[in-house]
Amino acid sequence: MLGLLYLPPVIAAVLASNPEVQQEINRWAPTNAGFTIQDTTNLHGLAISPWAGLGVLAIWAAAALLAGGLMFRLRDG
Length: 77
Known about the structure:
Blueprint: H1 2-14, H2 19-28, H3 30-36, H4 50-76
Helix pairs in contact: 1-2, 3-4
């Protein structure tokens, strides 16, 4: 699970030569989405808006809960 938090920024740093791909990776990374929720200034320079970041973070949380629930049901149910 920690790989999902740390892997997208590393991939974005490796793909620094292509800014469009880097922007899309930063937009959907859970870490960046979570940090943009806290921003109140310089909103135009962000990869994603704070409300959209909250939505992306909620999607990541729902996916993690769904995956955990499915794993629990398949292994222990």
